Task: inverse folding
């Protein structure tokens, strides 16, 4: 499933890149840099990490009701809304960013602020981008213990449902390294293949499952 999704995303970007270059023509200049807004759809809990020792890995098939610690939310879908400022004229011209990534299945959502750095190629038609941010989650630092003694059966089952469906991130505050590849459709619109990671590197507790998200964003430049 992950390989199929990755292949589809790659095909979409290849098609969009070809179309954008054909429309732009050889004399197209890079667009002026302004603030941007973006809307994206991301796969929540993807086994993909571009900075890891392996780019992708397969987990064994699980029986119904089974899960790995840290994978309880995998396979759901997030909708992301982002705002980026125009590049600042300091520190290699970062863009300040604010992002809200909302899970559509009632799992953990992420609210981030940070900075992103961009590099254009092919006269501004394609760009790579990397960033870092700080995130606050609306999910669980630690899920409630369903096996705690002296609680009612009803409370034990309530906690078990949370334990089965929600991830303990070990902290309400996480770090958000991220990266994307963008292709300009014209001077105002672009499409991006995006990767978002959330974890705290065991700074705030020993529990740190982390989570990776991959998806597509549509970006619109603001102003003239």
Result:
């Amino acid at each position: 499933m992950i390989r199929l999704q990755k292949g589809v995303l790659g095909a979409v970007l290849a098609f969009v890149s070809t179309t954008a270059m054909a429309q732009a023509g050889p004399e197209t200049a890079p667009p002026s840099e302004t603030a941007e807004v973006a809307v994206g759809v991301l796969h929540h809990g993807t086994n993909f990490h571009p900075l890891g020792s392996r780019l992708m890995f397969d987990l064994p098939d699980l029986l119904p009701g089974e899960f790995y610690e840290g994978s309880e939310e995998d396979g759901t879908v997030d909708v992301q809304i982002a705002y980026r400022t125009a590049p600042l004229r300091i520190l290699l011209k970062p863009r300040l960013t604010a992002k809200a990534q909302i899970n559509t299945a009632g799992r953990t959502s992420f609210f981030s602020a940070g900075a992103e750095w961009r590099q254009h190629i092919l006269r501004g038609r394609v760009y790579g981008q990397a960033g870092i941010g700080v995130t606050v989650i609306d999910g669980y630092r630690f899920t409630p213990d369903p096996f705690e003694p002296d609680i009612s059966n009803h409370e034990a089952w309530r906690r078990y449902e949370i334990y089965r469906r929600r991830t303990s991130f070990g902290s309400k505050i996480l770090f958000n390294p991220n990266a994307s590849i963008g292709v300009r459709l014209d001077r105002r619109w672009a499409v991006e293949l995006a990767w978002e990671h959330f974890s705290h590197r065991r700074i705030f507790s020993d529990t740190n499952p982390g989570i990776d998200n991959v998806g597509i964003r549509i970006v619109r430049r603001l102003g003239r």
The radius of gyration is 20 Å.
